[in-house]
Each structure stands twice: as structure tokens, then as C-alpha cells.
## 1
Amino acid sequence: MVEELYFANRMAVTIDVLRATSTITTAIMNGAKEVVPVGSLDFSKIASASSFGGRTMRGGEKNSKKIEGFDLGNSPLEYQQSVVEGKSIVFFTTNGSKAIVKTKYGSGTFICSFLNAEAVARQLAGMGREFDILCSGLNGDFSLEDTVCAGMLLSEILKINSDFQLSDASTVAINLYERYGDDIRGLYSLSEHGRILEAGGFIDDLDYCAQKNITDVIPVFESSAIKLFNPSIHLQSN
């Protein structure tokens, strides 16, 4: 397992398409001021205790279920503009928020899902920097849908820069995307996490998270919070 210090001063991409990175992307797309990922449920309660004037919300899930006392679950459909615009959202999930927090010592972590993979790919290709892809997986195990999304991201980068160097794991991810990428919704019915969410009644979430490239929004995790990526500011500071 990769330790936190591995990511020190490195650029990363975190993927948890079912559902954390899809939900975060949707929240930022709909005007959330920031999403603050936390690695433990207890810390999320402490972090949101300073909430005032309704400007801070708590969102997330534990074992796919909305956490008692939280304002929002982990369904991207809950994060509508009328709900999240201008808000700070303290965010805990079983897999995704923990993976994002793991990169806290890095130089910036892009939040990627099928919803914005092409936009993330364009930005990465233009920056010309090495980066790591962290697939959050399911309870620490391999996730088919996260790996397929990584394959989509890499495939889009290769369209821009055919000389881009791939690791063995990246090559496998691209192969999986070529096999399953034409039917993401069908992929969810094959994957372990997808089947869990189907059984839990989250059909609309699965339909939503299967959409490709519906936004150019790129959330980036820096300084303990996820905000809208601003290329001019970020490129000047790195």
C-alpha cells in the first residue's frame, strides 16, 4: 500500500467514480466554494463543529448509506446548485475521501471521474508533468470501474501526446477501457461496487455516474481543500 509521504511534492489524480469523485465534481460544478475531504468520521464531525450561518455542510456516506446527522449523502444528485452554491462541504466517504487525503503532501491532486475525464486529460497533457493515478478501490481492493476510468484518462492523454510514457499498470488500465469503455452503465452491473449500489437502490446515481465528459470542471485538492482548478493561478505557483 502506498504511504502518504510517497506523494510528497508529486502531482496526482484520484479516481472514485462510485461515487466520491463524481459527487465532488458535481458539487464544484454547481458552485460549491470548496469540499474538505477528511479521512475519518470523527474528524469530519469535529471539522464541521465550527459551522456558522449555514455556510458549512457535512456530506458523505459510510458503507453506501448517508451518515446520521449529515446534511447530504454521497449521491451526486443531492448536490444541486440550490443546495451547495457558496458552501463549504466537509466530506467523508468509505473509500474516496480517504484516498484523496492520502495525497495531502503532494503538489496538487486532480479529482477525476467519467464526468470530466477528458478535461483532466487535456490539462495534464498540457502541463507535461509526471503524475500518479490513485484509484480508491473498494475497501482497499481493486476496483474495475476506477481502473477503467483511469484507462479512459490515459487514452485521452495519448490522443494529445502519443509519446506519453506508460507504466505496466497504465497499459492494463487502457486495455480494460478498450474492453468496457463503450458501455459504462453496463460495466457498473458487472463490478462489485456497482452491484452493491444497484442492490441498495442507487440506480439513478449509477445512470448519472456513467455519463462521459459532461463538464470541463476540474476540481483540485490543495492546502487541505478541493476547489475549482484555475490554470493561470496553479501554473504560476508550480
Note: The chain has one domain: 8-224.
## 2
Amino acid sequence: MNLISFVPVNSIENVRYLINKHKLNIITVPERKTKRGDFRVYSNGLKKITLNQDSNKFRFLITLLHEIAHQLVFQTFGGKIRPHGIEWKKKFKEISKPFLFESIFPLSILDAFKIYLKNPKSCTDLDIELSISLNKFDTLNDYFIIDKLEIGQFFLHRKKDIFRKVSKKRKRYVCEKISNGKLYLFQPNTLVLDYNNEKK
């Protein structure tokens, strides 16, 4: 796999080291709505990491390290431990250390990533500061985070579903899906489109 076009240039040497040392099987795939990457073990024993091609280079690298940590933990403990438990957190921190430099990450992402690694969550999107820092480097210029919308404003989620921002519940926003009237909770860093602009 040629990672040059997917990860920051100054991270390539360290990434190649991890891949060669652990004989990792990594492929990139088109955008998936429900996940940015995954690690799977097949019935024939094959282990494979897949990563979304649409991620910016910094998010791609963090997702790659996340999934490599899954494989390394599996190779040590098998499938008998929690996917994002203590063992995974420890391994994720360990393999991320060689990448924690300004020569690889912009300072805004680096600072947020270091804080995130103190107790990493199952997904970077669950860490508001890190997610916002990463979103700034996306090329999706028409998108913005739901936190920027006014209460009552309409928006498009996943380019097709129309919602109305209703209220705030603790850290998340309550939004009504127009097609069925049901209420859903959204993280404040969810990327959405302005419905009014899309109609023009």
C-alpha cells in the first residue's frame, strides 16, 4: 500500500516501520457513513485494516494508529477483551508517541490529540476539541458544525435528511427529522449542510 498520498509526509517513515514490523494488511476504501476505519479478522485467519479515503491526512493518520492498536492488541490477547478497553488505550498511546510532533501535526491538532490520548474514546468524533481541530483541515467547504446553527434553523444531514434544530440537551442538540417528526440527538461537532442554501 502506498501511503504517501494519505498521511502527512513526515509520518511516512514511522508508518512504514509499523506496517513492516507487524506485517499489517491495510487497504483504503471509498467513504463510509458509519465509520472511518476498522480492523477485522476473517474466518480463514486473515487480518485486515480498512480506512476511508476521504479523510484529511491528519485524521487518516490518527484513524490508522487507532486501527493498528486494535490489531496489535488482538494479536496479544485475542478477542477476549473489550475493544476499547485498557489494553487498547495503552497500545494506542504507545504507538502514537513517535508521531506527536509539530513536524507531523499542526499545533492545534497536536495539542488536542495529546489530551485525547490521556483517555482515548472509541471514536475521535466523540472528542469535541479534537474533532473540531481535525474538521478545520477538511476540504468540505460547504459543511459546518451543527453548533453554529441557530435554534429553529433547518439543515441537511448526510446530504439527504432534513432536520430542524430544536433545543440543547446537556452537551448535545435535539433535532427533529422533518420526514417523520422524530427527535434525534446530535453531537455539536456534527458536520451538516445549510438546507436553505442547498435549495437555491
Note: DSSP finds six helices and nine strands in the chain.
## 3
Amino acid sequence: MEKKRVIMDEKAMQRALARIAYEILEHNKGAENLCVVGVFSRGAVLGRRIAVKLSELEKIDVPYGALDITPYRDDIKVSDHVEKTDIPFEIKDKNVVIVDDVIFTGRSSRAALDAIIKRGRPRSIQLAVLVDRGHRELPIRPDYIGKNLPTARNELVKVAVKESDGTDCVTIYNNI
């Protein structure tokens, strides 16, 4: 895999996540009945950061959970998967913001929707992504986007986060 270029550095990621947090508050008219659920693995880290920012801005606790979509994917079949989902609150009648790192075909987002709906009936489900690279196969569109990044199908977009990778950045690679 050949590195092509860094699309977002740490500062750009911070600005994008802050902007997403402000857009979420504006759209929902505050943080009342709001919760954030991040998709494992990097979406969970980004989701936690957004939940912390929302809590700081609104001076209230915004519930946060992490979602393992593996059992709901239509492209991977695993028989002995131990689900890591940790959503320690009820989602019934909440405005749920699902956070993922990159949206591509929309299949992961569809799996996240299925996983959330299985846990209850939220008032609304919204989708926030750091990077939208296009090439949808399903009619799914994020409500909040950190960066639109037109890509070729053979390119790979990788999000790195300090918590697991030691650095914050978004890089695009040629997938050779």
C-alpha cells in the first residue's frame, strides 16, 4: 500500500469534530434527549470526543455509548464473535447520533441502524461522519460531515486516532 497524502492533521480533525458538535446542537436545539453512539473502533473514539464537546458546550451530561456492528454486517459472517457493544442507557425516545469515521458504500451505516433499532425505538437517528468519500451503494446520507473527500474506488482512506494509533490524522492511500 503506497501512502498518497495526509488529508487532515490533528488540528483539522479537532476543528471538524468541533464543527460537527455545534451543528448537532443547532439541529437539535440543544442537547436535551440527545445521546451519542460511536461505531467501533475509530468511530467510537470520535463519538466520545463529540459527546465530551457537547457536554462542555451545554453544561449537561450527554450520554455516550459504543456500538459493535459486526453481527449486523451483510459482508462479514462470524460465528464466534464476542460483541463489544456498550450502551449503558436507554435509547427509547432519544435523539441518537451515530458517529463513524468514514462513510463509503453505506453498508456499515445500515448495520449501525439495524443495531440501534434492535435496542429500542429512538425519537430520531442521525449520522455524523468525519469523512464522506462517496461511492454509496445504499441510499444513506450523513447529517453531519467533517470533510467531503471525493476518492477513486481503489483508494483507501484511513483515520488514525491518538487513543489507538498514537496520532490524529486522515490519510489517503493508493490501494495497490
Note: The chain has a mean pLDDT of 94.
## 4
Amino acid sequence: MSRAAYLAGLERQRLLSGARRAQAKAEAQAVAEGVAETVALSIARGGAFEVPADARRGKPYRRQAGLDWLAAKGRLSPAQRAAGERYGACYRRARGEIAIASTLDVKPGLSGGTGAPLSEVLAKAEANAQARARLAAYRRRLWDQSALVAACDKICGEELTPREAAAAEREASRLEAVLAVALDILAGA
């Protein structure tokens, strides 16, 4: 191989690696712009985010759940927040129902098969049944009042901020006040 061919090969490698770096940088910039746009749209719809201290370094945004946002604003007491977290965990567990639709999905005694072992399916079904019973008890404590239950379902269970859960700012304020009453009832019992 001649010296000229060797140098031409080195130059080609340098240019290719420079092009790859430029392409990677452009893709990273496009992703960052897409994330920023998505976050901005979610904020406009009422979502709350923990903005990273140094967004340029690629640290992720973290969406705040409704209870986290209210607690960060100082609008919930620790007892209210704990009651809301209990309600929310129970709500999400009860909504994540596992139906035993077919015995074809269950592989009794097998842990490496495509389906879950029967004992695992039954344990999840039992946990869901217990969660539904606890959720029903929480709702009875709220006297099955639709406004109280809906506020807890939206903010504690579905983890929406009041502004995301409501159509207007005035409705968001009302929803926040109703939630405070519901959480006081749940925390006091």
C-alpha cells in the first residue's frame, strides 16, 4: 500500500467519523427538541413536571403525580398525602384486574413457559379482590358521595393534577377543595 493510499484512507476514516458525530449530535438535538415540545404541551394541559436542574445534560423530566404536585405546593398535610397514597395504590391495584380468561394462558407448575403459573395468576387475582374490597371500604367512608369519590379517583388513583382532571381553572380549584375534604375524612378514620 502506498503512502498516498494510506493517508487517503485515514482522511476518509476521519471524515466518516466526523459525519457520524454530526449525525448523532443532530439526532440528539431533534430528540431534545421533541421532548421539550411534549413537556410544553403537557404543561399547557395542566401537567406538572420536575424540571431537571441542568436540562442541557440530558437529565430526564419527571412528571409529577397530582398528590406530589399538591404536596410540593404545600396544599396537603402529611396525613392527607398518606391517605391519598393509600387510596391511590388501592385504586390502581383494583383497576389492574387480571381476568382468568382461558386455561390456555395458564401453565400449571411451569415458570419458564409463555403463560404464568397458576399459583401466580391466583395470587394476583386474590390481591385484586382484596384491593377492590379495600377500595369499596374507602368509598363507604366517603359516604359514596360522587364528588368526593371522583376527586380521589382522578387525583389519587389516576395521578392527575387538579388542572389536568378539570376542564377549567375554576373547576380545578373546586376539585382541589373537594379532594382536601375527602382526604381529611380518609385520614381521620
Note: Residues 40 and 128 are 36 Å apart (CA to CA).
